[in-house]
Amino acid sequence: MSTPTHTAPxxxxxxxxxxxxxxxxxxxxxxxxxxxxxxxxxxxxxxPGGKSANQAVAAGRLGADVALLGAxxxxxxxxxxxxxxxxxxxxxxxxxxxxxVETGVAVVTVDAAGENSIVISPGANGTVTPAExxxxxxxxxxxxxxxxCLEVAPETVTAAARAGHDAGATVVLxxxxxxxxxxxxxxATGVLxxxxxxxxxxxxxxxxxxxxxxxxxxxxxxxxxxxxxxDRVVVTLGADGSVVLDRTHDAGAPITRIxxxxxxxxxxxxxxxxFTGGIATRLAAGDRLAKAAAYASVVAALAATQxxxxxxxxxxADVAAALRTx
Length: 326
Description:
Blueprint: E1 14-18, E2 22-29, E3 41-49, H1 51-61, E4 65-73, H2 76-87, E5 91-98, E6 104-110, E7 116-121, H3 130-135, H4 137-140, E8 145-148, H5 154-166, E9 170-174, H6 183-188, E10 191-195, H7 196-202, H8 219-227, E11 232-236, E12 242-246, E13 255-258, H9 271-284, H10 289-303, H11 316-325
Parallel strand pairs: 1-4, 1-8, 2-6, 4-5, 8-9, 9-10, 10-11
Antiparallel strand pairs: 2-3, 6-7, 11-12, 12-13
Helix pairs in contact: 1-9, 9-10, 10-11
C-alpha cells in the first residue's frame, strides 16, 4: 500500500483528539464472569487507556502529528497517562490536571479468547467542559482531523465537533459508549464510526446485514444513515472486517467491504481505538475513507496481538511489514 504525503488544501495534517484519559485496571481470566459469579484471575495490570488517549497514542505511534485535549487527576494514574502520550509524541499541553478529582478509571476483564468487558468511572473526564474547548480554539486552526468519542459530556463533544467543523477539519466521531446524538452533532460529523450493534441502535433497531451479505445489501443501511445527515460511515464487524458507506462525490465507490486482517488475538481491549487512530492518520494524510479503513484494519489487528492497550499499538513500520506479508 502506498503512503501519500499530501493533505487537503488549507490543512496541515494535524489530528486533534478531544475526550477521555483512563487508567485501565485489567484482569485476565479464562472466561468472563456471569452475574454474581467470582472467578480466579490469571494476571493483572494497570495500563494507560481511555478511548481518546488511545486514539491519540495510536495515531502518534503511526507518525501523525497529534494534540490531545482532556483532563487527568493529580495522581499516579494521571502521570502514567501523560507519560504514555508523551512517549508516542502526543502534544498534551491541553490536558488539564484537575484538583481534587481522581483520574478516570476503566475496570477491564479479558478472557482467554481476547474478548473483554469494561466498566468506566469518568473521574476527571467528567470535568472537561465546552468552555475549555472554546478556549483551545488555536488547536483546531488548520487541523485536518478531529477525533471524538462519547466518554466525556455530550455538550463537550458537540462543542468540539462544532469547532472542528467550523475550522474545516474532518470530524471523526466514534459512537462509543453508545448514546443518541443530536442533529447538531450529526451535522458536524464528517465520518461516523460504529460497530454493528451501535449501528442498529442508532438506526432504531434496524437490522444490519449479515457479515456474508453482498455489498448491495448495505445500500438501504447507507440510505438510513444519510437520512440522519451522515453520508460517510464505517461499520466495524469484528473478526469479519468492516464496511465503508461513503455517498460523497469523491468516494470512488459508495459501498466497500474491508476484509479482516487475520491474527491470533490475545487482547482486543482498545483495538477499536487503534482502528480510529489508524483511520484518522490516513485521512489526515489525504487518503479516501475506504483506503484509510483498510489501513486501520491492519492497525487494529496488530493491536490485538499483545496484552494491554497503548503499549500494544503498532508503529507505521509494523503496519508496513504486515502489509508486505499480507
